[in-house]
Amino acid sequence: MIGLALKMLFGDTAKYVMLIAGLFFATFLIVQQASVFCGLMLWTTATLRNVAAPIFVVEERVEQINETNPMRDTDVDRVRSVSSVRWAMPLYSGIQRVRLSDGSFKTVQLVGIDAASLAGAPGRMVEGRLEDLRLPNTVVIDQLATTRLASNPKDPSTKIKIGDRFEINDVEARVVGICEAMRSFTGGPYVWTTYERALQYTPPSRKMLSAVIAAPVKGMSVEQAAADIERTTELRAYVNHNFGKDTKDFNTSTVWWYIRNTGIPISFGTTVVIGFIVGVAIACQTFYSFVLDNLKHLGALKAMGMSNVRLSMMLLFQAFTIGIIGFGLGLLATSGFAMGALKNGQPPFFMPWQIPVFAFVAVQLICMLAALLGIIRLSLYEPAMVFRA
Amino acid sequence: MPNPIPTTRIIVDVRNVEKSFGDGDNRIHVLKKIILQAYSGEIMMLVGPSGCGKTTLLSAIAGTLRVDGGGINVLENQLNEMSGSALTRFRSKNIGFIFQQFNLIPTINIAENVSIPLMIQGVSSSKALQRAKDALDRVGLGKRWKERPNKLSGGEQQRVAIARALVHEPPLVICDEPTAALDARNGEIVLDLFRQVARSPDRAVIIVTHDSRIFSYADRIARMDDGEIVEVHEQTQPTPPHFVHEHSHG
């Protein structure tokens, strides 16, 4: 009977295509929008990923990495004084404007790290030497900056190379290295320099330390060290693992801050809900219409001795099949979008496994709802009605 | 009461059956104390004006409609006492249906359409398809088994419906206005064929019809009016009693 169910489904081309189209759009909207949202949330934690330190110590009211309150330079020593801390280094992180050779301005995410230890440096250099950061007026830029800071981003010959110069707040910056880095939340490239030089690039204020990065002594967990730091210094110490349930994790805290304090989740969530509703509306309406069109045939099957359970299974199988096909095509289209996004570096795109699983469940829910309407209609159809032409 | 056809057994025994629709003042008694038998080997027609209760009686005999009173015994099974699922299984095994509008599924070929009663019974699709092709052979459509119903004329579609009704060799065949959707010539061709392939010493055929042109195909005619059987008439010149067993036709 599975073959019969499929042939009945595929035989009505117009409704079949309509059903697939509805579920395709529902899947695409749900997966694509949820993935862009996750990508955007991932970007909010870019500094935490680009500055690989196990512990971030910030001012006590700070909840997210992109909005830190300035601290005193002496706070570095206070953190160092905690017995469970192996090392602690200053970190500057802020958005600055770069003046390019043609006179135009671009914003960058400036990161200042300790010159001696280079703690907080990028994880992988593509070109140049990290140690050259210790030379006067030098910076290391990420790969995005090579085109973003070029005079003509579309012309490869104008890409920023090692040895090129630009200005940050009228102070010269010479490129000595190019590294790999995750793109920042603002979309601007990352520029690394030493902590002292970062203060020169930045308009002066009384307190300029963004954070203290630290690591625990051997044998001590980062969580324990962070707790010790908080208890001793009364500063806020976050661990730097990954987004999860741990609110002591700076990634988690940062993402939740954006979820709570911005309209981003509402905006994306609305689109996801609309995708679901569109899917429900199209699939339910079309599938119900499909059942109505086939009611006299289904009624005849019922009269001929096919049980309600078997007929219901046929409808559920039909709904499940269109769900699988619609979901597959939607996921395929989202993959195409993802490839484009990853190639261009934007829009942000990150699809954890939970998203397709959630979308699959949502699409199957839509299909089962559609099938349920059909089953209810069919169960109300008395087999005797088939004799009333 | 006319004499039953000799050497036959009762396939359908309807005893004091009553059925009404609606409630209170709007209650309509559609069947009033109906008594009727159908015997193996015979073709019986239920005739009468529109609204007299023919189709309701046919539905009740087919086990697709519960009655309010009385009893219907089909093949020694009391339909009123059977559960819904038992009744469904009973129909699938023992009753062949021919509908006025054929009710062939348009998206599958005619062999697949004919195989449906077998597949409902759980016969494997390959065996069901083979038996469906054999059944189509008997109605002269064996070579066209791959065609979809919409490629066939009305008469041919009704022949497919006949094959579908007989493929599982049911002892009772129920026909609802089998010629209503056909012109006179096609109606005659279909009924000729139907008589050849459906008549069997072990089978009763009950046909509801308005079409007086086909009355001559019946062994007995039960005339209904206002929910009652007003006359059961045995044909003075019944169709030749040569029982052609379906297996003898290829």
Shape of chain B: globular
Coarse morphology of chain A: elongated
Whole-angstrom Rg of chain B: 18 Å
Mean pLDDT of chain A: 91
Q: In angstroms, what is the radius of gyration of chain A?
A: 29 Å
How do the SSEs of chain A run, as a string of H and E?
A: HHHEHEEEEHEEEHEHEHHHHH
Number of DSSP helical runs of chain B = 6
Number of helices of chain A: 12
Assigned CATH architecture of chain B: 3-Layer(aba) Sandwich
The CATH topology annotation of chain B reads as Rossmann fold
Broad structural category of chain B = alpha/beta
Which percent range fits the helix content of chain A? 40-55%
Oligomer: heterodimer
> Helical amount among residues of chain B, as a percent range?
25-40%
Question: Regarding CATH, which class of chain B?
Answer: Alpha Beta
Spatial sequence of strands, sheet with the most strands of chain A: 2-3-8-5-7-6
Largest sheet of chain A: 6 strands, mixed, barrel
* Main beta-sheet strand count, sense and barrel state of chain B: 6 strands, mixed
Poorly predicted runs of chain A are: none
How widely separated are the two ends of chain B?
Answer: 38 Å
Give the structure's gist in a few sentences:
The complex is a heterodimer of chains A (389) and B (250). Chain A is of the alpha+beta class and 389 residues long. Chain A folds into two domains: 2-42 and 264-387, no CATH class; 50-242, no CATH class.
